[in-house]
Amino acid sequence: MAKHVGVKLPEDLIELLKSGKAVAVLATFSEKGLPHTTPLQCMYPKGQESILLTIHKDHQGYHNMVWQKKVMISFLAAGNVAYSILGRVGVVRAPSMVHPLMNVVRVDIIDIKSDRSVLTKVDSGVQWSYTSWEAEELLNGLFNELKEITKTM
């Protein structure tokens, strides 16, 4: 059963986001009302009430969020981390300073709900690894850009 958490990121979710290993699913709707989901790997908390993320400028999820201005982001990870966040979107930097095809977006939290179940618990979430040293360099650069932005805005 979902439980309202509030508008501030819980500590376990902040730690997951800071780890650089979080995976989330971004949910948006197109102008025609079609649902769209996008896996995200590059996110960082901006205080307790916002999340910064990077996304490709031509991705359908990006176009939907810019048009719609609202998103849902779902997190499932080890340690029974299970949250869904409703947020309002604003573009922070287009393009990213790290890569010209990536944009930086801020999601300001409207509401957080806990998706933990009384019947089950999340033992592990999605785990990933880099496909090449170039991919590792790019994602590390984007992640560091998000960390730097949190210090200046």
From TrEMBL:
<protein>
    <recommendedName>
        <fullName>Pyridoxamine 5'-phosphate oxidase N-terminal domain-containing protein</fullName>
    </recommendedName>
</protein>
<feature type="domain" description="Pyridoxamine 5'-phosphate oxidase N-terminal">
    <location>
        <begin position="20"/>
        <end position="101"/>
    </location>
</feature>
<dbReference type="InterPro" id="IPR012349">
    <property type="entry name" value="Split_barrel_FMN-bd"/>
</dbReference>
<dbReference type="InterPro" id="IPR011576">
    <property type="entry name" value="Pyridox_Oxase_N"/>
</dbReference>
<dbReference type="Pfam" id="PF01243">
    <property type="entry name" value="PNPOx_N"/>
</dbReference>
